[in-house]
Specification:
One of its GO terms (molecular function) is cytoskeletal motor activity. Helix content is 60%, strand content 8%.
């Protein structure tokens, strides 16, 4: 291993090394706090204060232990009793506070539920008359809305009945003109409805139908049955009116049509 010495990066040996060691300067290692003036640690503490030597002449702190007073048995018992009473008092106060808070919370919840139920019932009782009144009003309005429709239905029904009556009359009147025997059938039906005890009978006919009846029955038979044929221009073809001293039978076409239609409409549940 080499023992070569270096000085400022250059090797030094022999006499040069001896001379260098003789004249080697001793560094000054005495502490000078002034060189730390204006400088501080990362925590802001001044370096002068940090490297300052403690003053040996400063008074050392009193390290004597403090003296505690001597307590008697009675004093210790009193301290224990006071601590016990204080604990009881604090526990009582804390228990009262906890119990009061719990009671208030539970009381609020129970009162809230009871209040809600009472409020619902009270609201229902208060609103029931008003609801019934509104329902009656609504029912009346609905009935009034339906009333025009009901009137329209009734009018349409009556118009249909009248139309059917007119159509029936038109058809029957037309049939009377085409079939003269209709008046003969009406006359027979009227005579059958008369009591047998009737002797003199007046038969009112349309002038055209009167001649038809004369031709059908003949003068001799009409006289035997005491039928007096009387012309009535106000009657329609096919109309027959039979009158006696005690009764009268209307066998006009309008009356017969009305009876037929009334029976038909009554059977169909329609009022004429």
């Amino acid at each position: 291993m080499s023992n070569t010495k270096f000085y400022k990066g250059r090797p030094v040996e022999g006499e040069a090394l001896d001379e260098l060691l003789k004249n080697w300067p001793i560094p000054d290692v005495t502490e000078d706090p002034r060189k730390y003036s204006g400088r501080s640690t990362a925590f802001g503490k001044p370096l002068e204060q940090l490297y300052q030597k403690p003053d040996k002449n400063a008074e050392e702190p009193d390290t004597e232990e403090p003296e505690f007073p001597t307590l008697t048995l009675e004093e210790l018992e009193q301290i224990r009793q006071d601590a016990y009473d204080e604990g009881i008092k604090q526990g009582h106060e804390q228990g009262y506070i906890d119990g009061f808070d719990k009671g208030v919370t539970e009381g609020k919840e129970a009162g809230y539920k009871e209040g809600v139920e009472i409020g619902k019932q009270q609201g229902h009782d208060d609103a029931k008359p008003l609801i019934e009144e509104k329902l009656q009003t609504l029912t009346l309005i609905i009935n009034e809305l339906h009333e025009p429709l009901r009137l329209v239905d009734e009018r349409c029904e009556k118009q249909l009945v009248e139309l059917a009556n007119l159509l029936a009359q038109a058809v029957i009147f037309r049939e009377v003109e085409l079939d003269p025997n209709i008046v003969l059938l009406a006359l027979k039906k009227a005579m059958d409805a008369l009591p047998i005890s009737e002797h003199t009978v007046k038969i009112h006919l349309h002038p055209d139908d009167l001649e038809l009846v004369k031709e059908a029955y003949g003068e001799e038979q009409l006289a035997q049955q005491h039928w007096h044929l009387l012309p009535e221009p106000t009657l329609h073809r096919g109309d027959v009116e039979v009158k006696t001293s005690q009764s009268s039978i209307d066998m006009t076409l309008k009356t017969r049509i009305k009876e037929i239609l009334d029976d038909f409409l009554h059977g169909s549940g329609i009022q004429s």
